[in-house]
Each structure stands twice: as C-alpha cells, then as structure tokens.
Amino acid sequence: MAEPLFLVENVTKSYQTGDVEVQALRGINLTLEGGEILVLLGPSGSGKSTLLNIMGGLDQATSGRVRFADHELTSLSERQLTLYRRDHVGFVFQFYNLIPSLTAWENVALVTEISRDPMKPGEALEMVGLKERMDHFPAQLSGGEQQRVAIARAIAKRPEVMLCDEPTGALDSKTGILVLEALCRINEELKTTTAIITHNAAIRQIAHRVLTFHDGRISETVVNTERLPPSSVVW
Ligand SMILES: Nc1ncnc2c1ncn2[C@@H]1O[C@H](COP(=O)(O)OP(=O)(O)OP(=O)(O)O)[C@@H](O)[C@H]1O
C-alpha cells in the first residue's frame, strides 16, 4: 500500500499560560492520503485549529509524531519548518490577509516570486474564476472574491496540501459556495490534499472523510460514500 501523505501518531499539545495548563490535543491519530478532502467539525476549543497548525508547521506538538511524506515534522528546526511551509503548504484563513495596496495579481505574484515551480499569477487567478478581476484591489472585490484571491495565492506555489481554517466563516452561503467550488476544483485538477475546518456541518457533504473533534480528541470519523458538489450543499 502507498505511504500516506500525512501520518499523525499520538499527538498531544498543551499550552501553559501562567498557572493554567490547557490540553488542546489529547492523543490524535490520523493518516491522510494524497488527493483527499477532509472536513474537520467540532465545537469551539475542541482542538481543530491546533491540529491544523501542527500539520502546517506553524506550531509544534508537545508529544507524538507528525510525518509529511519523508519529512518528520516533529523533529524539524524552526528554519526547516519555514522551508516546509514555503515549499509544501498553502494556508487559507477566515480573514483573507491580502495586502490592500496591491492588486489581486500582485498579491499572488508576491508568492510566486519566492516559489520553486510556481504557476503564473494569472493562471492561479483563472483557477478560482477571477482572471477578469486581476487588476482590481482588495477593496474593489467582495469578501468571497477576496477569499478566492487568497486561495489563488495559496495554490500558486502548487502545494501538495491546502490547510483551510474556516475559509467560508465570514461569507454568506452563495459566496461561500463559490469558495468551496474553487477548493474542490483545485483538489480535482491538482490533486491537492485539502483539510477544511468549519462550523458549518452542511459542508461535510463535499468531503471524502469527515472528522469530528471533541475535547482534544477525534470522536468520530465518517467516510462519505457519496459526495455532493458545493453547488448542491444547502445552508
Ligand atoms: N496559543 C495558545 N495559548 C493558549 N491556549 C491556546 C492557544 N491556542 C489554542 N489554545 C487553547 O487550546 C484549545 C483548543 O483550541 P483550538 O483553537 O485548537 O480549537 P478549535 O476547535 O479550532 O476552536 P474554534 O472552532 O473556536 O477555532 C482551546 O481551549 C484554546 O483556548
């Protein structure tokens, strides 16, 4: 059998703030195959973002092991983690973090200039349906369009993995669906392994696999035998 893209073994994470220790993850085991869409559900504070941040090299586990392809993330230095993020991971957050003084094209080009085998910015913007708007500044774009620019920026370096933390959290359903369509199209065309955290349980229907978190653990895993396209998801 092929090696999984991600292997997460017995991962725990605790945060110490003054005298208070918070156990954010209490033993996570997970394998993630190349090309999979994973949706992560669960109440606020259940550990979803903490796990994504560790898988994306933004944070380190307290104990346990995380492997991505042949990178042992849990034994990398800060510098090596920076290179891992730069070369392999695209991030999408609830807020788009675009640079307001740069056009859509320029926001994407910032990333392609430092990538090894990037797409052209126009190509990435075309994949999210925004080629016609590439000379527009963020303030001239709707929230959903700005999020699609952020997705174009994340995919332009051709990452193997996209980690999305509440990508539709600030959007109405119509624009949220366009954002999910962009993520599904990228998954299909580039085989990008994609993890999506959401509070919107309806989105589970676009996933290959749905993980539900509870109190720092994965309490349920469901493999979807049938998936819906984002346009058929109602919320
Ligand atoms: N940097 C930090 N310092 C201290 N505690 C933290 C830190 N980051 C997260 N936590 C705590 O760890 C727990 C898990 O947080 P996490 O953000 O992973 O949850 P979540 O499921 O993503 O929640 P949400 O859906 O609200 O984003 C929470 O109790 C949170 O307060």
Could you explain how this protein is built, in words?
Helix content is 28%, strand content 28%. The protein has 235 residues and is α/β, with parallel strands linked by helices. The chain has a single domain, classed as P-loop containing nucleotide triphosphate hydrolases (Rossmann fold, 3-Layer(aba) Sandwich). The strands form 2 sheets. A 6-stranded mixed sheet has the order 6-7-8-3-9-10, with helices on both faces. Strands 2-1-4-5 form a 4-stranded antiparallel sheet, with helices on one face. Strand 4 and strand 5 form a beta hairpin. It is globular, with a radius of gyration of 17 Å. Bound molecules: adenosine-5'-triphosphate (ATP). Adenosine-5'-triphosphate binds at residues 15, 17, 22, 24, 42, 44-50, 213. This is ABC transporter ATP-binding protein. InterPro entries: AAA+_ATPase, ABC_transporter-like_ATP-bd, ABC_transporter-like_CS, MacB-like_ATP-bd, P-loop_NTPase. Keywords: ATP-binding, Cell inner membrane, Cell membrane, Membrane, Nucleotide-binding, Translocase, Transport. It comes from Ciceribacter ferrooxidans.
